[in-house]
Amino acid sequence: MESAAGSTSVERLKNKLREPAADIRYLLYRGYRRKGAIRFVSNHYRLAEEERHILTRLVFDPETASRRSNRRLACSQLKGCDIFIDGYNVLITIESVLQNETVWFADDGFLRDTRGIFKNHTNTATTYQAVDEMLTTLSVLAVNSATILLDTQMSNSGKLAQFIRKRAAQYPFKTAVTTSKNVDFDLKQAGHLGIIATADSVIVDAVEWAADLTACWMDQNGIVGESIGDGGNTYVNHRY
Fold first, then answer.
1. Distances (CA, A) of 116 to 6, 75, 119
2. 8 pLDDT tier (thresholds 50, 70, 90)
3. Which one of 35, 65, 140, 145 is separated from 49 by 20 to 30 angstroms, measured CA to CA?
């Protein structure tokens, strides 16, 4: 569980970023380019690099946010479905929660961590715990099958794939685990075969239906994510 000091720190961060996030939403609503809007507002508020990274991960223009949100299926809709899972995207976010890191619901409704450790990720005991949590979530959701894709560029992805296969044998749904040099491409291509489980914006933008598996896991375990302001309304009413 998060400590009282950690909770206070998160609230302080949310309060600090709420107004910059609202400013960015307003500029995006008015048609400004996203990268320039985030840089301009971040410079204006003299935000640290980590704070800028959080805004980049969480704040989107209203059209994009609405489009992605409309593609996101509720957890209750995944029963009997064939799921194609962006393995590291899901596992790293679950890891963040297990390590008491803050995770955030972005304006598009998808849950994201803000550690930015993807390329430097290595398998740990927490990774293997995250695998069990992910598989248990899929079982509770009563999916028909799960195809889990892992990036070969990641350290020991083959070893992780073997571990997932071994653990998945204990569950009732059909499972396939593959490693790939082009996970993003493979998931986009699989969009017509089933539901894509990812919070990766590029993939969500390219498929018909997506699911936020980490959010489903958190919901099952009573864990609450954070957010900065109201991504659905703030930009409309904001004034300088």
1. 19, 26, 8
2. confident
3. 65
